Amino acid sequence: MSRISDLIAQAKAKEPALGADxxxxxxxxxxxxxxxxxxxxxxxxAVELPQRPVRKGDKVRVLSPRGSAKKGDQRLWQVKAxxxxxxxxELVSLGSGEREQQSAPLLDLVVVAESRDTIYPGLVSTxxxxxxxxxxxxxxxxxxxxxxxxxxxxxxxGKVDAIYIDPPYNSGAKDWKxxxxxxxxxxxxxxxxxxxxLERRLLLAKEILNPxxxxxxxxxxxxxxxxxxLLLEQTFPxxxxxxxSSVINPKGTGRTGDFARTNEYLFFVRFGVATVGTRRxxxxxxxxxxxxTMRRRNLASIRGxxxxxxxxxNQFYPIFVNIKSGAIVGRGDVISPDIVRDSIAAPRxxxxxxxxxxxxxxxxxxxxxTAFDRWWSLGYIRANGRKDEPQPYIIxxxxxxxxxxxQSGVATTEGKREDGSVIARYAGASTxxxxxxxxxxxxxxxxxxxxxxxxxxxxxxxxxxxxxxxVEDALRLFVADKPEAIIVDFFAGSxxxxxxxxxxxxxDGGTRQCISVTNxxxxxxxxxxxxxxxxRPGDSDWEQWGICDYIxxxxxxxxxxxxxxxxxxxxxTYKFNDEFPMSDGLEESAEFFxxxxxxxxxxxxxxxxxxxxxxxxxxxxxxxTRIDRIxxxxxxxxxxxxxxxxxxxxxxFIRAISGASSSKLAYIVTDDxxxxxxxxxxxxxxxxxxxxxESYLTNFSxxxxx
Length: 706
Prior knowledge:
The chain is built from 18 helices and 32 strands. The chain is an alpha/beta fold. It has a ten-stranded mixed β-sheet with strand order 7-28-8-27-26-9-12-14-13-25, with helices on both faces. It starts with a helix and ends with a helix.
């Protein structure tokens, strides 16, 4: 609405009567508030791209002189012509006002991309670390996350198993920017800007998540958790949204006159068949497996009740217990609700036990009659203790969880008691159902976050890093049984999610991969110092202090190699789950990229191929070798994919890719759809044909709503 207000003001200045009419109608419409979360979407969102070369047709801003701390001209200009010999550009102003023209040095211009603009992304590799043999590579991408998410709609549409994000908490403390300005506490549109920013990215995240089985995890604190919850429900109506409260600072943050905050919140949005896993519990090692009462507890399970939650007709029957031995000797037939339980006679020397509460309320057993027969014969049901109550003996059973633990070897049977019931003890770690209140020492932001990062990258400060173990635990709930899961974090910060993914792989031999996305923003205080020294974003002496180059990439590299950025062995040990020296490193591989912005012409004519190549490799699984150059033979085969550049060389290409057992994709470069279809039919089963560059160009037009 702030944008509409500006436009109405401009209309009133030019034509007062028309402006007044528009304002009156606008006020009438704005008073009709719809249901749900209402906020200003502040479209379009604009980001500056300091490392992007200036081209004709670009939108740009004119920067302040070097050494100036003042905010530059925020107006947008369009580049009408570029004179490379003079290193200058001819500009014309954009907007609804009078058109202005000026000439400006290229070095004083910065390209601006708006959220409504169609982009054609590429990637440039800026380094790698390899210890993972043939495992897929983790990737760290330096770029505006909105644009990187658009790139991922081409490489990973519908393929992502989990997204973990820690978005800015919108504290007003210069922790994030909107349209190149820090959003501070006195900004009247602070909350709506935050929601608008996040909604755009969540809508793209929706495109890359697997709709049949995936999860999105988002952390937040008290400042925005209410709005975030509503936004998630509104954006993902098909998902199940749940919230967990997690203690991250047991001491509490000191705030005069307020409660000392100890916790933050995690939202889990589950899609398709995704379910919450269990938590490892080592406290039960050596303990006997616990028995539970077999009488149903909830009032929906009252005998004879019908409707939602009611039991079936075969769960009310007598269990006969020998009075002398206290052991179960069998059961009687199921009796219908119209039969009085006292009318059932027990065998000689036995008593008939029915599921009855102390107050006399008749309930139902946990199992049907046939299920009872099965589990009692295996020693999983017993009588335990005589009571002077309507139910004279406690009937217990080993629940489904315990039976599965015995079957899997987590618990082992040591024999049977005289009554035939099994004696089982935990030989390995058990599991617990995860609750919505987390209070674990390992989740402390200080111990699992700050101290871990300090060990990996000494003397490099980063505010409020997440506990490595907290992220690890949250992800494990959903990817423990997915050893090849693809995980994305598009607010990657210090790289904790990538680190957690690598540790999960070490624990179970998995080959999960993480795609971490972050910009290279320099902290507010550091920016002021650098500007006074005559530096600007895009300068190498500026970029070296950015979050991606200074924190994220070094942290991921250190986790893999076991060495700090200066080459010394890391002095530290992983704690809690899976303890080992950090200096051992991790047997993983990671490659680092910077997002580029291409033109459709350079893409379709193969001019930009070296920058499109990493996207093709990512789409094929980010495993093994990559085709970075156009070969003279007109085709090439990598470990997991192949590219046919010259359709006249189709026969040797198809022969070669047919013999490559690990190939899963075949990219075919052609403008002729009929020829593409003919070649696709010649490919062996199991290899997906992808037409270049039609699929690439169409994807990004589609992603932009065109």
